[in-house]
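FW: tagging you since you asked about this chain on Friday. Here's the raw sequence from the shared folder, copied in full. Didn't touch anything.
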Amino acid sequence: MTSSLSNIEIANRAELWPISEVAEKKLGLSAQDLEPFGWFKAKVPLSSIKQLSEHQDGKLILVTAMTPTTAGEGKTTTSIGLVDGLAKIGKKSMVVLREPSLGPCFGMKGGACGGGYAQVVPMSDINLHFTGDFHAITAAHNLLAAMVDNHLSWRHEPMIDARRVTWGRVLDMNDRSLRTVVTGLGGKANGFSREGRFDITAASEVMAILCLASNLVDLERRLGNIKVGRTAEKDIVFARDVKAQGAMTALLKEALNPNLVQTLEHNPAFVHGGPFGNIAHGCNSVIATKAALKLADFVVTEAGFGADLGAEKFFNIKCRYAGLSPDCAVVVATIKALKLHGGANPKELAKENLRALKGGIPNLLCHLGNVKKFGVPVVVAINQFASDTEAELDLVTKICTEQDVCVALSNHWEKGGEGAMLLADLVVRTIEKKQAKFQVLYPDAMPFAEKVRTIAQQIYGADDVEFPKIVLESFEELEKRGYRHFPICMAKTQYSFSTDPSMKGAPSGFTIPIREVRPSLGAEFIVVLTGDIMTMPGLPRVPAAEAVGVDANGDIVGLF
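HL: got it, structure written out here
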């Protein structure tokens, strides 16, 4: 695959339809059903979505991937290409994605609009400020932080112990200097001096709540249930105790409405919510997904990183709460990434290497096996590159076929929907022939420690889990307080099934060390931090921001 144009050049040269035209021609929505943000973006208000309740649901397709590598897998690109491919074969289709965070855009990973000729547009708008959802979430989160500090300063009841404040602050940027901070310095007038922290906005519980809330009432209820700290007697203090939930809801009122944009081929796309799959639950909003199912016959969505992270959380958290039942899953792989997992030299990935490829395929097979555990039919999409040889492609196809998994080659990056027609046809045939029997991995009533162990052993392939005494005590307290039914949200490196990023392929004989428990009582799941995972990433040695700028015509350049 080669292209003389960069992703942003392709996006900037695209001829976009007015978003009202996309809504009318592709979804049957009128201009009155939209809240436009310029010509090419719009929000679909909850009032318009409510009118769709009698519509029959379409088929739900999850796109996930093998374990990420520096070679890239193209999960978002494949999701967009698949929707364009479905449209090419005559299916009414729609893609539902997460919003990009500024952290990765200016860091190492880049934007989240796809690539090549499989993109959602307007790309620069979506990757940067979009409709302001991330800013609203950041503001709502930090409003609560300010109200907690004010509550402390005035010694309001219930009196929060300054040593036991658990609610930090967030910023939509990679900034390692803010991971641990001290606030309130400078004397009595500046409040209590105490240690605090910043997380990236994508890891905020407010982000998770927005993505899981079913409506405004549910949003406010969940916001009120956020744990912000404890009293000296160790009683939990909630956001509702500092009377913050109403104002937070007001800040999030518009952000709760899904954002409508389009692919390069003018197919509709909801881009809404943006939690990361390694440190949060990694899925777009429930509202957007359920609305899309009412608007299209085939809905494609994605979950962050590999099937051990985003897909597991999509099934165990999002589907559990939203009552979703996926009809098919697509696991994206590339020959280059498979060879990396098999020990190939990163500088020689363009060379045929069947030995390394065979060594890396177990990684893909583990992900396929994980999806099957949820009762969802699965296919493999090979995101094809020009360097892939016939022998390499045949080897992957042969091994997957032996596992009763069909494979489709896809070159949507180069050819858009036309390049994904084979994949689209395979997905439709799989849905027609194989009935999904969706089930979650563990029951609500299972103790927290066993839920964690189940994920670690059945999804990661770990021998066991290491629980420090303080973690087990936290689990015990939460269970006694009536939260046992909450699912687990594992925070783990995306680069390995283990907590060691250097352990590629399908490692065995490892243990998952648990570091910390952060109850997200408003989101209604329990975040479990493993290994060295950080909830505030840092910038790389050479940040992507160095290449970003604006040309003389006012066009953004260097964004990828």
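FW: The mean pLDDT is 96.
HL: agreed, and The two ends are 17 Å apart (CA to CA).
FW: great, closing this out.
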